[in-house]
Amino acid sequence: MTGLQGRTVVITGASRGIGRAIAIRAARDGANVVIAAKTADDTQQKLKGTIFDVASEVLAAGGQPLPLEVDVRDAERCQWMAEQAAEHFGGIDVLVNNAGAIQLTPLESTPPKRFDLLMSVNVRASYVCSHACLPWLKQSTNAHIINMAPPIRLEPEWIAGCTAYTMSKYGMSLLTLGLAGELRSYGIGVHSLWPKTLIATAAVERLGGDAMVRRSRKPDIVADAFHLIATSPPQELTGSLLIDEDVLRHHGVTDFSAYAHDPEQALMTDLYVGDWAKSGR
Asked: Which of 97, 179, 186, 173 is nearest to 143 (CA)?
C-alpha cells in the first residue's frame, strides 16, 4: 500500500493535539476518518478544539469525516463508536488508541481516584476500543492497531516519580505485545508509537508552559510516522514499540528541522526516551 485512500481510520482523542494531526494526515490521502473525542462544544472549556472543528479540517484536507462524541471510559459508547464507523463507512481498517490522561506525580500526590482515571483512559480504553473494533479489523486487508505508548524500561529510575502514569502507559505497551501475538493469524498488525521529543500539545504547555512548548516538536512528526506504519504491510512491524523519529529514519528521512516548534531552541527528549529519569525529572 502507498496510501490510505478510501480506508477507514478510527482515532480516539482526536479533537486536538496528536490525534488531530493524525486525522488530518490520513485525510490528505482521502481516508475516511472517525474523529472520536469527548469535546463536542468547547465554549465553556479552556482548551479549544472540538470533534466538529477537526471534521471541517479533515474535509478540507480531502478526507471524509465522521465526528463522534465519545468518552472512552464508557465501554458501551466505544462499542457504539465502532458500530457507527462500520455502518457509515462499511468497515474499519485502522484503530489509533490516542486518547490519554496524564499526571506525572509520585504515590503521595496521586490519590486512588486519579490512579483509576489514568488506568481507565489509558490502558482500559485501549483494550475496550480494540475489542470493539476487532470484528471489522478482521475483515480488512490491511488492518492495524496503533497504541500511543512508550518503549518499556524496567529500571526503577524510569518509573519512579510517576509510577501510576507509567503503569498505565506500560499497560498499553503490553497490550501491543499481547495483541500482536493474538491477532497475527488474522493479519492484523499491532504497534506502539511514541515521540522521541516532547510534542507541542496542551498537555506539555500545562506541564512546562511556553518555554517547554518551544523545546518541542510539532505533532506532525507523529502523524507522519503514523502514516508510514498504517500504510506498511501489517506483519512488517507488528509487536514493535516504535519511536517516531526512528520510523522516519528507516524510511530515509534525515532532516527533522521542519518539525521543530521553535528552530532556535534545543529539543527536549521525552520522558521515556531521554535523560529525565537520570535528572530526577
From this structure: 186
Instruction: Give the E-state strand segments of the chain in sequence order.
Output: 8-12, 32-37, 64-69, 94-97, 143-147, 188-194, 241-243
Q: Are the beta carbons of 219 and 261 closer than 8 angstroms?
A: no
Question: The C-alpha cell of 168 is what?
Answer: 498505565
Q: Which three cell numbers stand for residue 14?
A: 482526536
Q: Which of 127, 165, 170, 272 is catalytic?
A: 165
Is residue 259 flagged as an active site residue? no
Specify whether the CB–CB gap between 81 and 68 falls below 8 A.
yes
CA distance 124 to 249: 32
Question: pLDDT digits over 142-167, tens only?
Answer: 999 999 999 999 999 889 999 999 99
Question: Tens digits of per-residue pLDDT, 20-64?
Answer: 999 999 999 999 999 999 999 988 888 889 999 999 999 999 999
d(CA 215, CA 260): 8
In angstroms, rounded to a whole number, what is the distance separating the alpha carbons of residues 199 and 190? 23
In which band, very low, low, confident or very high, does the pLDDT at 275 lie, cut at 50, 70 and 90? low
Spell out the CATH class of 8-259: alpha beta
